[in-house]
Amino acid sequence: MARARGGASPAADILGRVRPLAETVAAGQGHELVGVEFRREAHGWILRIFIDHPGGVTLDHCQRMSEELGDHLDVEDLIAHPYHLEVSSPGLDRPLTREADFVRFAGRDARIMTREAMAGQRNFRGRLAGQDGRAIILERSDGQRVAIPYDLILKARLEPEL
Asked: How big is the CA angle at 83 (ends 81 and 86), to the nearest 5 degrees?
């Protein structure tokens, strides 16, 4: 659905104002807000909201979230130009963005990319095996455990379960 708003704001500022609103709406519906993106694509500006729900995200969850959040965005008037609002699940390769995500998904396989090399390596794969202070413990397929400090994590995603 296309929406137009008044008042110009850079994309980062828009994200900063949309995220708390989306978190409130998501929590009110029993969802977890996983991520928010606002970017220009071939067919225009897209505000993309990713939600998760115990037991999985359904089309009905996405529709209700889109309707309620869309109504709030219309009232708040946060975006100065036309855009499309999309609400979806984070997918099988869900991003891990908070420390709580690493705890919640302990025992699951993940891919982690670090900001800088650790022992000559920036990309890691393995099973999330807990945490140690300010680091997550990743157990690699060879059984070796690697402690990766949270502040070095650039990207982290779950590996889809087959």
From this structure: 155
120 C-beta neighbours (distance < 10 Å), count: 5
Tens digits of residue pLDDT in 46-92:
999 999 998 889 999 999 999 999 999 999 888 888 999 999 999 98
Look at the block and give the residue holding tokens 């729900």.
53
List the CATH number of the domain containing 137.
2.30.30.180
Alpha helices in 29-137 (DSSP H): 59-76, 99-104
Strand partners, 2: 84
Same domain, 81 and 103: no
Do both 50 and 80 map to the same domain?
A: yes
Alpha helices per DSSP H over 29-107: 59-76, 99-104
For residue 62, is it left (φ>0), alpha (ψ between -120 and 50) or beta?
alpha
- In the numeric block, the tokens 């219309």 are attached to 74
Distance, in Å, from the CA atom of 146 to the CA atom of 81, rounded to the nearest integer, reads 46
pTM above 0.85, yes or no: no
